Amino acid sequence: MDIIANYGTTLVLVAALFGFLMAWGIGANDVANAMGTSVGTKSLTIRQAIIIAMIFEFAGAYLAGGEVTATIRNGIIDSNAFAATPDLLVLGMIASLLAAGAWLILASYFGWPVSTTHSIIGAIVGFAMVSVGPEAVQWSKFGGIVGSWVVTPAISGVIAYFMFISVQKLIFNTDDPLNNAKRYVPFYMFLTALVICLVTIKKGLTHVGLHLSDGEGILLSIAISIAVAFAGWIYIRGQQYNPQDDSKMHFANVEKVFGILMIITACAMAFAHGSNDVANAIGPLSAVASIVAAGGEIGGSSHIAWWILPLGGIGIVIGLATMGEKVMATVGTGITHLTPSRGFAAQLATAATVVIASGTGLPISTTQTLVGAVMGVGLARGIAALNLGVLRNIVVSWVITLPAGAILAIAIFYVLQICFS
What we know:
- By secondary structure, the protein is an all-alpha fold.
- 77% of the residues lie in helices and 1% in strands.
- A two-stranded antiparallel sheet has the order 1-2.
């Protein structure tokens, strides 16, 4: 308690610096995942992707990042275990932010798409074990986390596989792909709009004053999706194509339509991601600020100070702009060759899996979901279409993320104890 009383302001400033670093890592890694398929399919240039992500990620983080955040992210440790020693919780949260941020930046440097959620969870578990003991950790939560390494990529992979197969059978592998595109693309536009509306409403609008029940959210999503499909139908019908063009030109024109769909989906996913994953950076920071402000009292949740959300949003944007290119390249071109239609199938499958996970409470990593979806699209063309060496490196990076976060957090926690003792 003496540490909080004597160094309260310093602790908040250090937490803000490390929280910014964590947000930087999220931008460099997770956001690059969201935009990687758009860049890999050449639907967007890297510069365009960065600009779009900057706008929508910051909007999601700042407008819909929440007014209240859980003190302990994902309930992975028991805050009551720190009731008598709040200074240990404060130092541990600061250590966790630096540990997770450092690991994300290192992974981004090597182009590894890893889970930001698992990075911060590993870090929090690490300091909890050495500060209070293993009993402070909710070990039952770990089954879902480890299971998510397999379950979420499998779900998104299956959805992406069948989505791409349907596009192939209904449009590309036909005698008249352009006319079939005019017939079926509005249906895909309806699906796209429905999924991204559900993602946005579920993840992004609960703190903007729009409180909808599940039924109201679904009805609103369906209404918007019908309007989007109708507008898409009018747009495609109005396009003039030369019937004398060869099949390659027909395919190119169809791919342009899917490229537009990809960009729309990427914008919605960036907004939803900003509103959801910014909590990985600002949750521990907000916890430190609220515990210091309360003189050491630990609450189950904390109100977010006005300056914390913009700090997280700016950190995410700078991380993407400075270090996002390598992870974009891994996801967009390293796993398998993507075209706009393939990238669309992967992006839509990712968004659909997020909706399923939100409705069922399944622990999910957006990164692992997207990688699984890209794998599913690749498998639709055969195992030879996948770069197994890149996939091996990705899976290894997933497995070591939890222990890496824990080991780094333990070392930093001991250093902070020495500094503030």
